[in-house]
Design goal:
Elements lengths: L3 H16 L8 E7 L4 E4 L15 E4 L4 E3 L8 H10 L5 E5 L2 H9 L8 H4 L14 H5 L2 H12 L10 E3 L5 E5 L2 H24 L8 H11 L12
Antiparallel strand pairs: 1-2, 1-5, 2-3, 3-4, 5-7, 6-7
The structure holds zinc ion.
The site of zinc ion has 5 residues, from loops.
Amino acid sequence: MMYKDIREQVYEANLALPRQGLINLTFGNASAADRDKGVFAIKPSGVDYDDLTPESMVIVDFEGKIVEGNLRPSSDTPTHRCLLLAFEEIGGVVHTHSTRATAFAQAGKPIPNFGTTHADYFYGEIPVTRKMTPEEISGGYEWETGNVILERFSGLNPLDFPGVLVNRHAPFTWGKTVAKAVEVAVAVECIAHMAWMSMQLNPGLQAIERELLDKHFLRKHGATAYYGQPEE
Ligand SMILES: [Zn+2]
């Protein structure tokens, strides 16, 4: 089997999404890049999670051409391709319609950073894009979804902010590996749930203090990180 590594990584990632309670029906997908080979693997479109196999993952190149696979790739493939092209430091992208994060996206609201769970993953609020224009929606919709994300990320480091809410739509997350992107997708749903509850308990609540944000984010990420075990 060609591209075995990314096929297996993407297969595992896609199965993890419903197992983690992030996916209903088939509303979600994951992709993983092999940058040396110039391709990425992505879930096939509209196939039941029970019927997925590593072999059924579709291999696509960075021009959007199918390199290997008999099934059509996910309809969100152009969004994944747009993000994988622009964010060279990432290796995988995940998209879900997880309920609470999607509620923030539909409301057009970023998720404020209220605590250390959030600060362990994001160096500030979880950003939300602007609404898409009628032209963007009727044109290359999925590619333009990637472009509104890139517009929102002008001046933001995608590893400091490993995810976004697309306005009226839902979250996209990413990471150095697709497994990391899955972990962030789980964290985003959890963070959205906690933020929503915190806002109910204290409607005037302000964002986490700078020193606590710095402490939690920087001990896990960046040059001075000391949390967990060093990466290889
Ligand atoms: Zn979607």
